[in-house]
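for the writeup, i need someone to sanity check this before i put it in the appendix. the sequnce is what the collaborator sent (i think, or maybe the updated version? ugh). structure was predicted straight from it, no edits. if anything looks off just tell me and ill rerun, i have time this weekend
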Amino acid sequence: MAGATYDVLGIGNAIVDILVQTEDDFLSENGLTKGAMALVSAEEQHALYDKTGQAIESSGGSAANTLAGIAALGGRAAFAGKVMDDQLGSVFAHDIRAAGVTFDTAMANDGAPTATCLVLISPDGQRTMQTYLGACVDFSTADLDHAQVEAAQVTYLEGYLWDPDPAREAFFQASRIAHDAGRKVALSLSDPFCVDRHRDGFMAFIAEHVDILFANEDEILSLFQTDDFDAAQERVRGMVGIAALTRSEKGSVIVSADEIISVPAAKVDRVIDTTGAGDAYAAGFLAAYTRGHSLKQAAQLGGLLAAVIIQQIGARPSASVQHLLQDLDG
């Protein structure tokens, strides 16, 4: 699109991940739902962390991971999210800027500390997340840079940030700014439990404000309260211009008004950690989409980047991936 400074601006939770490898027995012994994200207090998170082994700290957050992926592919990326002016806040800001992402949101000087997510990685690569949102929940319309939204081809909104009221209002304002500037708005549903909490609100927001929807199979089934993927696919087709629906080893399905495109999953030798697979898919899709590639090519790049991510520890590329987009550009 003409005059865009950024391919994608992401708005989401600014979180530092604490990655720990664990066993399934540990999850059941502590009453955790495998593969799900739960919001917890700082005290609950610390109590669980004290029971775990060696950990790796890594800047995370769903939308932030997507923007880091876009930058790694060679795209122009910016991120907006709230951290405290504390040690972990400085770690987050350093890491996302080092990844090539513009990050200008002012740090908070008082209130809750920077958000953390305890990521428990099972032997099969599934991740179970215990998230303390901390300073994230203070993101509001005051933190929106109107000029930055206007300068992005796509503003990408993270469904997890729908929980706090001030951030939700920022989503509405950002979508209005983007559309007034002739830009696109994308939303990631983030988690089926997030959808369960906010189904009606999501449905209305998607119908009125979203151009591109990202959801995995569980999330889209939850949104429409069905166990029939084909039925959900048809429902979403009438709501949004483009829906990118991921189905793990079954690949992905792109639904638009004109066509339904099924794209097989990219080849994977060994699944190590599924943390950030959906974030990486959105990164690949949006990087290709904003370069003017077809929806099929966008889905293929999304699948390729997701395949890279699930064969490593951590949600951001640990090796160069820029060639993946360059190959599409020809």
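The domain at 6-13+61-112+134-329 is CATH 3.40.1190.20 (UDP-N-acetylmuramoyl-L-alanine:D-glutamate ligase). DSSP finds twelve helices and 14 strands in the chain.
thx in advance!!
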